[in-house]
TrEMBL record:
Keyword field contains Manganese: no
Record-level Gene Ontology MF annotations: pullulanase activity
Keyword vocabulary terms for this entry: Glycosidase, Hydrolase
Gene name as annotated: pulA
Span of domain Glycosyl hydrolase family 13 catalytic: 181-545
Superkingdom of the source species: Bacteria
Family to which the UniProt record says this protein belongs: Belongs to the glycosyl hydrolase 13 family.
EC number assigned by the record: 3.2.1.41
SMART domains per the UniProt record, alphabetical: Aamy (SM00642)
Source organism of the structure: Lachnoanaerobaculum saburreum F0468
Enzyme's top EC category: hydrolase
Name of the protein in its database record: Pullulanase, type I
Gene Ontology biological process terms, A to Z: carbohydrate metabolic process
Coiled coil residues, start to end: none
Any Pfam family: CBM_48
Length: 642
């Protein structure tokens, strides 16, 4: 522990900062048809030997090459030869001891990520990759969270057996229920649903599964090689180039189907403390408290020190690499509340410079499990730091999530729709994405709806269906699932929901299923058609949402589109004012969480019913509102004025 404290002080010293902060962008391996260069940053190494292997699971190198010590703590080896497909690691001698490490800067690796691989990235591009483009920006972003393996593993999805649970499943066109049915699955289903962006849970190389065992499952929040695709989703985990090509093919297929791709990234901790970071420079990349205690704000055993120069540089370059090489359209930051504000804003700025202001999406979780030992007086990108974040960095709004359906952590704690008391003001605050100062009492520093991710379920905690099943009567669950959807889909902010929420996805009442069997976590495509009534309700709401400009506006001050806000016990209402491009100049919304009818007066007689508790496509049916109209119990009513 004493040594850890000394290293912590040394890494902040003038001597270290002047001599060992490397500004080049060539760390790792650069491989092309003419030459291959190896660069590793390891300032306190006495010597480093580059080991070359013929396969990614070999134990004995076929060649060992002493590396040259350069300035700023960098070690190098250059050769006028293309070493594409050659595996490697480094033997570092330090203080009389030897440590073997893979390359933390690697772009490719062998099976289970234990050996790095030199790769000529041009050789991994699928056909027409240079023509791959993100879809044009639409009127609204609707984000659908899914997991590569969960999405296509179940046979009901109709995916070929050899592609189930793999990147390649996304390249299968026009899949149908049980392969031959009339009901679409896969990307065709998502197109019909109306989502615009697919957020993919971790698909970088993670350490919590054996890539050779298809029966193993994990969500993947355990980073091993940050810049390499996960091998268990490839058809061949042993040849490092395969996973790269197949991930690119997946992204190409998703783009071709009209969706943007958002990557779930986990820069706040590593799979274990015995990481490639730790082996190349002990304790530099991790936070420790002044007494030498390891910081564990992630509750995963360690916290990455994003505030240190070379760590910040690593994360920034990693994000830019994924955006450039893999055409990623956005990034969801796991436990963003552990990353410093300066780094998040720098990432935002660099993406804006390269791709245009706000073109790449950034949002994350503005919280952590416990306190973290951040240094240099840096501020964290948590809820308290939202005022310091660029307005185009969004945060998941747990306030909205929990006020609608109750706490995600405390099963029996209910929200507005399932019996919670005195929730009306928070519901109205949610409608304006917590930007309206009159209703916003606890989330006061939000600049605009662009900073708020409005959602009610994600991979964490109970599914919406399971939460409702535990808190209300069985015959209320379907009705309240519809109500929950109608509420958050009529709130400002960026909309987000978990795959399967729209068809009543259940995990059997289990919440934290991160390492439970795939049989619990897989998407049951049969359920999408058993609960077609619910799916259709989501479809209608999403299509209606895209036509309400007053909800889609993400700019500062857009909460002013929401007027005439009122409340009664268990009932709230408001008006959405739209611009001239909308079909309806005004839209009246009423949320009735009570168990009895609520009567609304439409005295001017020029309203039509757009949505009620049963049908979200009434806006297509020219249904005129009565002078007095009933809002059904536990439902939402939406009226439009042309």
């Amino acid at each position: 522990m004493e040594n850890i404290i000394k290293l912590k002080d040394y890494y902040s010293s003038k001597e270290f900062l002047e001599n060992f902060i490397y500004e080049g962008n060539d760390l790792g391996v650069i491989c092309n048809e003419r030459k291959t260069t190896f660069r590793l940053w390891s300032p306190n190494a006495d010597s480093i030997c580059l080991n070359l292997y013929k396969t990614g699971d070999a134990n004995k190198p076929y060649k060992q090459i002493p590396m040259k010590k350069e300035d700023k703590g960098v070690w190098s080896f250059d050769i006028d030869k293309e070493l594409h497909g050659v595996y490697y690691d480094y033997l570092i001698k330090r203080d009389g001891k030897e440590v073997l490490t893979a390359d933390p800067y690697a772009k490719a690796c062998g099976v289970n990520g234990l050996k790095s691989m030199a790769v000529n990235l041009k050789r991994t591009d699928p056909s027409d990759w240079e023509k791959d483009k993100s879809p044009k920006k639409g009127t609204e972003r609707i984000v659908y969270e899914l997991h590569v393996k969960e999405f296509s593993y179940d046979k009901s999805g109709g995916f070929p057996l050899e592609y189930r649970g793999k990147y390649k499943a996304f390249t299968c066109k026009h899949t149908t229920l049980n392969n031959g049915g009339i009901h679409p699955t896969g990307l065709d289903y998502l197109k019909e649903l109306g989502v615009t962006h697919i957020q993919i849970m971790p698909m970088y190389d993670y350490g919590s599964v054996d890539e050779t065992d298809d029966s193993e499952f994990n969500w993947g929040y355990d980073p091993l090689n940050y810049n390499v695709p996960e091998g268990s989703y490839a058809t061949d985990a042993f040849h490092g180039e395969v996973r790269i090509t197949e991930m690119k093919e997946m992204i190409q297929a998703i783009h071709g189907a009209g969706f943007g791709v958002i990557m779930d990234v986990v820069y706040n901790h590593t799979y274990s403390l015995d990481s490639w970071f730790q082996r190349t420079l002990p304790w530099y990349f991790y936070r420790v408290f002044d007494d030498g205690t390891v910081s564990d704000g992630s509750a995963c055993g360690n916290d990455i020190a994003s505030e240190r120069a070379m760590c910040s540089k690593y994360i920034l370059e990693s994000v830019l690499y994924w955006a450039d090489e893999y055409h990623i359209d956005g990034f969801r930051f796991d436990l963003m509340g552990l990353i410093d504000v300066d780094l998040m804003n720098k990432i935002r700025k660099e993406l804006d410079i390269r791709y245009g202001k706000g073109e790449k999406i950034i949002y994350g979780e503005p919280w952590s499990a416990t306190d973290t030992a951040i240094e240099y007086g840096k501020k964290l990108a948590d809820k308290a730091g939202i005022a310091l974040l660029d307005e185009n960095i969004g945060v998941f709004c747990d306030n909205t999530r929990d006020v609608i359906k109750g706490s995600s952590l405390r099963l029996k704690e209910v929200g507005f729709i399932n019996g919670g008391k005195n929730k009306e003001d928070e519901i109205l605050a949610s409608v304006g994405a917590w930007c309206n100062p009159y209703y916003n009492k606890e989330f006061k520093d939000v600049k605009s709806p662009s900073q708020i991710v409005t959602y009610i379920s994600s991979h964490d905690n109970y599914t919406l269906w399971d939460k409702l099943s535990k808190t209300v009567a069985k015959d209320e669950v379907m009705r309240l699932n519809k109500m929950a959807a109608a509420i958050y889909i009529t709130c400002q902010g960026t909309l987000f929901f978990l795959s399967g929420e729209e068809f009543g996805r259940t995990k059997g009442g289990l919440d934290n299923t991160y390492n439970m069997p795939i049989s619990i976590n897989r998407l049951d495509w049969e359920l999408a058609w058993e609960n077609k009534e619910l799916v259709d309700y989501y479809k209608g709401l999403i299509a209606l949402r895209k036509q309400l400009k007053g909800l889609c506006d993400k700019s500062a001050g857009s909460y002013k589109h929401i007027t005439n806000m009122w409340k009664q016990k268990q009932v709230v209402g408001f008006t959405i004012n739209n611009n001239e491009t909308s079909l309806w100049s005004q839209v009246n919304v009423i949320y009735n969480a009570s168990k009895k009818d609520f009567v609304v007066e439409c005295s001017d007689g020029d309203r039509e019913v757009l949505c009620d508790g049963n049908d979200s496509r009434l806006w297509q049916k020219n249904v005129s509102a009565e002078n007095y109209i009933k809002v059904q119990p536990q439902s939402v009513l939406i009226l439009g004025k042309r």
